[in-house]
Amino acid sequence: MSITKKIIALLTCIVLASSVMLVGCKTTSNLPEGAKLIKEGTLIIGSDCDYPPFIEMNWMNKPIGFEYELMNLIGKNLGVKIKYLPPQNFDTLIATVAAGGVMDVGVSSFTITPDRLKEVDFCIPYFNSNQAIVALKTSNLTNYSQLAGKVIGVQSGTTGEEWARENLPTATIKPFNQTSEALLALAAGDIYAAIYDEPVAKKHMSGNTWTQCELVQVIATNEQYGFAVAKDNPELRDALNQALRDLKKDGSFDKLFAKYFPGVDPPSLK
């Protein structure tokens, strides 16, 4: 073979190899017709990223947790990339989803409530939760009835705040942007107790950071978490629901659920 032919053959191989690589990297979206994304091929997510074990930022300032891994699985199912926006205050997320143009979906352990349903749609519930009371071990607190007249920390805009205001009328309710801020205030003695979601409280109390605190009482509020989607995007909501059902059917959801919540029964995703 002449040098010229060898060069041509080599260039042909390079072109073919490049074509194969491009095909292999191409993402095929499984989104149904009508499902709208702010950026084509990318699902943009908003979260407060301060709610372990659901989602938090690690030491490299990257999101981790159950919801983060679940959204990655959903992204693969739908054939789209997943992009998380910088962490935002929880009490702004629902309104931002409803307004559109910034995030496609809110993923931040949202309890599905009638008031929130007036602003956004929710996907099928992926977690069942309750509220919990956390206090210093030295407080000798045993029941929420002892919180009358006390200063109670809550995360702003949460169902924990709603419960505290409805059930502790004589207490002073002090909202914080994040539960971690409430725990810092608790450790400093600025508040008497904190009220927020049970699975997050259990995660906090199981680590080595808040050893001076304890989970005092679980309050059975029977809440359910769902992803928030704008009301004018029902096709996206339905696509997320189908992805959740697919992951339930192939066992991926239950496997991931067991990783983060061993011994807890996963939801049916119906």
Description of the molecule:
By secondary structure, the protein is of the alpha/beta class. It has helices at residues 3-25, 66-78, 90-99, 114-117, 159-167, 179-188, 198-206, 234-249, 252-260, and strands spanning 42-46, 50-51, 55-57, 63-64, 81-84, 105-106, 120-122, 127-136, 151-155, 172-176, 193-197, 213-225, 228-230. Helix content is 38%, strand content 23%. The strands form three sheets. It has a five-stranded mixed sheet with strand order 5-1-6-13-7. 35% of the residues are buried. Mean pLDDT is 91; it is low at 1-27.
Write the layout of secondary structure elements.
Blueprint (H helix, E strand, L loop, with lengths): L2 H23 L16 E5 L3 E2 L3 E3 L5 E2 L1 H13 L2 E4 L5 H10 L5 E2 L7 H4 L2 E3 L4 E10 L14 E5 L3 H9 L4 E5 L2 H10 L4 E5 H9 L6 E13 L2 E3 L3 H16 L2 H9 L10
How much helix is in the residues? 25-40%
Please describe the biggest sheet, giving its number of strands, its sense, and whether it closes into a barrel: 5 strands, mixed
Helix/strand order: HEEEEHEHEHEEEHEHEHEEHH
Q: What is the approximate shape? A: globular
**Estimated share of beta-strand residues:** 15-25%
Number of strands: 13
Number of helices: 9
> Could you tell me how far the N terminus lies from the C terminus, measured between alpha carbons in angstroms?
65 Å
Let me know the average pLDDT. 91
Instruction: Outline the low-pLDDT stretches.
Output: 1-27
